[in-house]
Amino acid sequence: MLNRVRRIRGQLESIEHAIEREADCSEILHTISACRGAINSLMAEVLDGHIRFHVVDPDQDPRSEKARAAQELIDVIRAYLK
Q1: Per residue in 49-76, is it b (16+ CB within 10 Å) or e — as a string?
Q2: Angle at 73 between CA 71 and CA 75, to 5 degrees
Q3: Among 35, 25, 32, which residue's Cα sits nearest to residue 5?
Q4: Residues 46-67: tens digit of each pLDDT
Q5: Up-side HSE of residue 78: CA atoms within 13 Å toward CB?
Q6: Could you tell me how far CA 37 lies from the centroid of its own chain?
Q7: Within 13 A of 30's CA, how many CA atoms are on the CB side?
Q8: What's the pTM?
Q9: How far is residue 14's CA from residue 27's CA, in Å, rounded to a whole number?
Q10: 3-class secondary structure for the chain?
């Protein structure tokens, strides 16, 4: 996760520099879009971990109804954040 955060920081700095040098709007928007995608991926990863280790007991049978429901929720969140 730290690598993701560092990549996002670099993207934000790139946005800042592009604005400072008055880059073309399309370049800035493209970089913002990439940053948003990286943030969404980070969000999905953190939510995945939270659901697996705080909502569903990680020692529970992975084939249980609760575990399947948790996986369905994770899949929906990941699809939404794409």
Answers
A1: eebbeeebeeeeeeeeeebeebeeebee
A2: 70
A3: 35
A4: 999 999 888 888 777 878 888 8
A5: 11
A6: 7
A7: 6
A8: 0.80
A9: 10
A10: CHHHHHHHHHHHHHHHHHHHCCCCHHHHHHHHHHHHHHHHHHHHHHHHHHHHHHHCCCCCCCCCHHHHHHHHHHHHHHHHHC
> pLDDT tens digits for 8-45?
999 999 999 999 999 999 999 999 999 999 999 999 99
Span 60-78, average pLDDT: 88
**Per-residue model confidence (pLDDT) at position 73:** 92
Provide the token pair at 31. Answer: 């970089």
